[in-house]
């Protein structure tokens, strides 16, 4: 069993009391802080994404309104209607055409140079020829149906305008005449129901870039990602904060684990999620879909920045925990020492008292329970010292009295045998004289009458021999009892010679010795596996022989006799048991089992009744105990113990 010092226990309790509540509070506070920051980030990013979507949609709605306005402008209609007329060689017509062109250009430059709303504005006649351009770049005069620009987005916008009669935004792609990434919108121009051509505007990406690169409210890592789906891929349409060259160059494959938020946005789905972006960084992202252009828009920030406050709080909590730990350890050490040191001194004093030093006292002057305990201990130690002195005196007196009793028993038993021997000798002489008298009886009784001779003969042949036999029997019995007392008194002076004994071999030898009695009784002995013990060999042989013989003597003749012998080991001692199925012992006779000259209800058995008294004395010499358990009519069990801590050649005399 593992023991912990009191100071260690106090330290652990102090730490548990201080740190567990702090840990619980810190954990819940951190979880709450993360949740709150997450909600705030979601609200902020959602507001920013809604603002950017509204701004983008307003931007393109404005361009749509502008192109519709151009298409319905009378000057534009008049220019397209009169353009072919002004192409004649008539110098007057040519001058009028020039004047009309300058007038229209001055008007339309207001939207390009003046308000910076457009990059360029085109007027295309119904034959597909670009007849007007504010910027007057290389595309002016080109035919969008048959010319080199027939495969451009401008040509596609013109065809949709004159066929669908609706404004439509093209994809952004590189437009060679301008040398820029550009998109186009167009609207048909009618005059009195007649299609004259189309008005087209050119939009460059500068405004889109500017809106995407507005990082207001996005901290140090936030950005806006704008992408359009082309086949199974997403093309990034604006520079990224962490990749300035991403516009129209960076591609995200649909299904890739990176860039999930923009993939969600491109599918017209919206949501807020924590994901891994194109850099492999964990981000908190809001996905939105711009229906006007079929674009996906994501506003996102790195979670490391969003939860930076929570991480800082966590670091502070860890530092506070470490500081608390150090303070608690210091306080616990001081407090535990103030409590444990007096207790340790008291413990050491108790150990010394337990070892026999009853002069020990504890000098503890604390005015608390420990001080009271020390006072009680000192008082107890004092009382124990007095009791020990008295006990020592009584023990010496008892030992002296015990020795006197043993000496008296030895002397008495020895001295009683002398008159018994004399009495038996005189009884023998009387028997010899009786035989002499009987041989001379005929001559001696010759002069007596018949009745007198008869009485004398009866006395000589019957009464006197019977009396002498009774005297001899009593003397033998008395001699046996005195011998038993003498033997028992000698056991008290026996010095044990301890040695390792194989009890299996010992029991085999003893069982062989009583095999005749076993066969005579029709009984058997069952011996289990017995351990090796350290004891006096002759004593153990007497113990096992006496108990086994005792069990054989009292087996019931009506049923097969079985005697079981076994043992069990534990940490401090070995326990042997000898169990029989004999007649057993009545409950009111149990107290007589180990008394001398007692047979506990079995008076018809030979012997002095000393066997179990011998056994008990020998077991006590080995510092063991012996007990008997019995049920009348069913059998008895004798169990005795042998301690394992006896040392060799130790004087174990009682």
Your description of this structure?
The protein is an alpha+beta fold and 654 residues long. Among the domains are: 72-170 and 185-197, 2-Layer Sandwich (Beta-Lactamase), CATH 3.30.450; 208-306, PAS domain (Beta-Lactamase); 494-643, Heat Shock Protein 90. Helix content is 52%, strand content 18%. It has 15 helices and 18 strands. The protein has helices spanning 6-71, 74-83, 91-114, 153-164, 206-212, 260-266, 303-306, 308-354, 369-439, 441-444, 450-491, 503-513, 515-521, 537-553, 611-621, and strands spanning 120-125, 130-133, 173-175, 180-191, 194-204, 223-230, 233-236, 251-253, 271-276, 282-290, 295-302, 498-502, 524-527, 532-536, 562-569, 573-580, 626-631, 635-643. A six-stranded antiparallel beta sheet has the order 8-7-6-11-10-9. Helix 2 (74-83) runs antiparallel to helix 3 (91-114), helix 9 packs antiparallel against helix 11 (450-491) and helix 12 crosses helix 14.
Q: How many strands in all? A: 18
Give the radius of gyration: 63 Å
What characteristic shape results from the CA principal axes? rod-shaped
Q: What is the rounded distance between the termini?
A: 36 Å
Output the CATH topology of the domain at 494-643: Heat Shock Protein 90
Strand content: 15-25%
In DSSP terms (H or I, runs of 4 or more residues), the helix count works out at 15
For this structure, what is the CATH class of the domain at 494-643?
Answer: Alpha Beta
Could you list the spans in which at least 5 consecutive residues all have pLDDT below 50?
Answer: 88-92, 603-607, 649-654
Major beta sheet, specifics? 6 strands, antiparallel
Question: How does the helix and strand content classify structurally?
Answer: alpha+beta
Oligomeric category: single chain
- Helical content stands at 40-55%
CATH level-two architecture of the domain at 494-643: 2-Layer Sandwich
Calculate the mean pLDDT score and round it.
78
Look at the structure and name the CATH superfamily of the domain at 494-643. Histidine kinase-like ATPase, C-terminal domain
Strand order of the largest sheet: 8-7-6-11-10-9
């Amino acid at each position: 069993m593992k023991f912990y010092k009191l100071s260690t226990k106090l330290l652990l309790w102090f730490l548990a009391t201080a740190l567990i509540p702090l840990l619980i509070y810190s954990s819940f506070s951190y979880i709450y802080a993360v949740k709150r920051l997450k909600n705030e980030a979601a609200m902020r990013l959602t507001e920013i994404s809604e603002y950017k979507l509204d701004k983008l949609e307003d931007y393109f709605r404005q361009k749509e309104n502008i192109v519709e306005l151009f298409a319905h402008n009378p000057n534009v209609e008049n220019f397209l209607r009169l353009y072919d007329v002004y192409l004649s060689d008539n110098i007057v017509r040519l001058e009028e055409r020039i004047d009309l062109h300058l007038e229209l250009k001055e008007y339309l430059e207001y939207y390009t140079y003046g308000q910076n709303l457009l990059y360029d504005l085109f007027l295309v006649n119904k034959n597909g020829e670009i007849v007007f351009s504010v910027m007057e770049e290389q595309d002016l005069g080109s035919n969008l149906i048959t010319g080199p620009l027939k495969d451009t987005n401008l040509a596609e916008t013109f065809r949709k305008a004159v066929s669908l009669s609706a404004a439509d935004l093209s994809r952004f792609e590189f437009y060679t005449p301008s040398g820029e990434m550009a998109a186009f919108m167009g609207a048909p121009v009618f005059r009195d129901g007649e299609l004259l051509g189309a008005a087209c505007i050119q939009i460059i990406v500068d405004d889109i870039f500017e809106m995407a690169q507005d990082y207001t409210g996005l901290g140090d890592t936030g950005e806006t990602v704008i992408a359009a789906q082309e086949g199974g891929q997403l093309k990034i349409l604006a520079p990224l904060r962490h990749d300035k060259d991403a516009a129209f160059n960076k591609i995200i494959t649909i299904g890739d684990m990176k860039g999930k938020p923009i993939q969600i946005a491109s599918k017209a789905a919206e949501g807020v999620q924590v994901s891994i972006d194109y850099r492999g960084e964990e981000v908190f992202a809001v996905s939105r879909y711009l229906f006007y252009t079929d674009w996906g828009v994501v506003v996102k920030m790195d979670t490391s920045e969003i939860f930076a406050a929570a991480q800082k709080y966590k670091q502070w909590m860890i530092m506070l925990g470490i500081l608390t730990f150090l303070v608690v350890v210091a306080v616990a050490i001081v407090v535990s020492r103030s409590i444990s040191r007096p207790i340790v001194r008291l413990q050491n004093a108790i150990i010394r008292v337990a070892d026999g030093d009853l002069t020990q006292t504890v000098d503890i002057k604390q005015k608390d329970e420990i001080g009271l305990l020390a006072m009680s201990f000192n008082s107890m130690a004092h009382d124990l010292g007095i009791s020990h002195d008295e006990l020592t005196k009584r023990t010496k007196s008892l030992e002296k009295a015990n020795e006197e009793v043993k000496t008296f028993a030895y002397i008495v038993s020895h001295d009683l045998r002398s008159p018994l021997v004399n009495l038996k000798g005189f009884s023998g002489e009387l028997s010899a004289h009786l035989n002499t008298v009987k041989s001379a009886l005929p001559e001696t009784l010759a002069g007596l009458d018949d009745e007198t001779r008869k009485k004398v003969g009866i006395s000589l042949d019957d009464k006197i021999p019977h009396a002498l036999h009774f005297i001899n029997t009593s003397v033998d019995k008395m001699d046996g009892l005195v011998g038993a007392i003498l033997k028992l008194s000698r056991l008290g002076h026996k010095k044990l010679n301890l040695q390792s004994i194989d009890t299996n071999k010992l029991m085999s030898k003893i069982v062989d010795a009583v095999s005749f009695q076993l066969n005579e009784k029709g009984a058997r002995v069952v011996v289990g596996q017995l351990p090796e013990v350290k004891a006096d060999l002759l004593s153990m042989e007497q113990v096992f022989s006496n108990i086994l013989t005792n069990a054989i003597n009292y087996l019931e003749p009506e049923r097969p006799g079985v005697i079981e012998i076994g043992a069990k080991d534990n940490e401090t001692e070995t326990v042997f048991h000898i169990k029989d199925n004999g007649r057993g012992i009545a409950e009111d006779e149990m107290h007589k089992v180990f008394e001398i000259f007692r047979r506990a209800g079995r008076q018809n058995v030979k012997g002095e009744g000393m066997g179990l008294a011998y056994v008990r004395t020998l077991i006590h010499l080995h510092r063991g105990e012996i007990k008997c358990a019995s049920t009348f009519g069913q059998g008895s069990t004798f169990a005795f113990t042998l301690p394992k801590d006896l040392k060799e050649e130790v004087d174990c005399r009682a």
